[in-house]
């Protein structure tokens, strides 16, 4: 009986340690998501619309861009498209598998499709398309998850990172 008690105590200690480790890991991941989103927020302030994007690989920012539709007279010059163009041109490779993109607003269908075609592994955004519609931002009301679901890729999507701060850009 005493042996079972000791095993039970060891299991409790292991479980407690695992829970502590998981909580710490969650804080680190959330902190990195928030850090990269803050960079996207700063990038958004440079553009003529409140959209900013950064692309990250292995915890390092490798590209940053903002919306330049008005400046470039190019309706495709969204922040995500610009960041993808910058990075693929720099890499001289169209494949961005293993990269994450952080964006202040949920990617529109065009940008979500570009992420699919580029092979982006994860999309992290602040304000959703629904959020943007509610503050009178022009949007095609199709979520990036809907675009991904109809594609050949399995892209992870993380939503609502610094949502409040992102929404303040669009007010």
What does this structure look like?
It is built from seven helices and five strands. It has 171 residues and is α/β, with parallel strands linked by helices.
Q: List the strand order in the largest sheet.
A: 2-1-3-4-5
**Number of DSSP-assigned strands:** 5
Percentage of residues in helical conformation: 40-55%
By helix and strand content, what is the structural category? alpha/beta
Order of helices and strands: HEEHHEHEHHEH
- How large is the count of helical segments? 7
Q: Calculate the mean pLDDT score and round it.
A: 88
State the separation between the terminal residues, measured CA to CA. Answer: 65 Å
Taking pLDDT < 50 over at least 5 consecutive residues as the criterion, the unreliable ranges are: 3-10
How large is the share of residues in beta strands? 15-25%
Query: How many strands, which pairing sense, and closed or not: the largest β-sheet?
Result: 5 strands, mixed
Assembly of the depicted chains: single chain
Radius of gyration: 20 Å
**What is the 3D shape?**
globular
């Amino acid at each position: 009986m005493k042996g079972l008690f000791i095993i039970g105590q060891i299991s409790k200690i292991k479980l407690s340690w695992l829970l502590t480790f998981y909580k710490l890991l969650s804080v680190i991941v959330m902190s990195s998501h928030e850090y990269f989103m803050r960079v996207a927020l700063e990038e958004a302030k440079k553009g003529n619309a409140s959209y900013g994007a950064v692309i990250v690989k292995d915890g390092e920012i490798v590209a940053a861009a903002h919306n330049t539709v008005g400046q470039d007279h190019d309706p495709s010059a969204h922040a995500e498209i610009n960041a993808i163009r910058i990075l693929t041109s720099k890499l001289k490779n169209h494949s961005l598998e293993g990269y994450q993109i952080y964006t202040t607003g949920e990617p529109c269908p065009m940008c979500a499709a570009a992420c699919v075609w580029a092979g982006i592994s994860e999309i992290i955004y602040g304000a959703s398309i629904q959020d943007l519609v509610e503050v009178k931002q022009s949007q095609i009301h199709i979520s990036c998850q809907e675009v991904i679901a109809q594609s050949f890729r399995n892209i992870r999507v993380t939503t609502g990172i610094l949502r409040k701060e992102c929404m303040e850009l669009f007010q």
